[in-house]
Write a structure and sequence with these properties.
This protein is an alpha+beta fold and 180 residues long. It is built from four helices and six strands, in the order E-H-E-E-E-H-E-E-H-H.
């Protein structure tokens, strides 16, 4: 079960998180190999948008047990996430989303969720395993192994047992037909 941890980090009003704050958040959840004394050794790439996220890479330490990855994704959920009213009962909240991602990550096909947190100012966020990936291109449909991987991913996702409440599909149909 994913639980929400409170972190003693305050987000800056403008601009990126400081490396010390990033280190403090990540090492709350990745406790084995992320005990980095100097946060300046972290390589941080920030992607700003509706939801800020950071790809964080730590230096490889001699004798690493490979219990945790060298790269993680730190995602901050925007307080401006808008949900169209007609869909609000169908969309999971951020804790439910983290639980779903955690459960899917257990299949081996998705990123592992290391932790779900809330900052001092109430911002929610998540630390996930970083999976190096790319967007699919139209020509990828010609590659049988890519098609098989995508089909396996969808099948696994849709058959994943999760701790979330299952809602009848009819609710979805009712919302769509009313909204249309």
């Amino acid at each position: 079960m994913v639980t929400c941890q409170i972190v003693s980090v305050a987000l800056p009003r403008d601009g990126p998180l400081a490396k010390t704050a990033i280190k403090d958040i990540v090492q709350m959840f990745a406790t084995n190999n992320w005990q980095i004394p100097d946060p300046e050794t972290l390589v941080v790439k920030r992607n700003a948008g509706a939801n800020q996220n950071y790809v964080i890479e730590r230096p490889k330490i001699e004798g690493d047990a490979d219990l945790e990855p060298c790269k993680v994704l730190l995602k901050l959920h925007s307080e401006h996430d808008k949900i169209i009213d007609v869909f609000k009962d169908l969309v999971p909240n951020k804790l439910e989303e983290a639980q779903l991602c955690h459960d899917y990550g257990q299949s081996g096909l998705g990123a592992k969720v290391y932790g779900f947190f809330q900052t001092k100012d109430g911002t929610l966020g998540r630390v996930d395993e970083f999976l190096d990936a790319r967007n699919l291109e139209p020509e990828d449909v010609e590659d049988a192994s890519i098609r098989a991987d995508v089909a396996r991913g969808y099948a696994t996702f849709h058959s994943t047992k999760t701790q979330l409440e299952e809602k009848p599909v009819q609710i979805y149909y009712d919302v769509i037909t009313r909204g249309a």
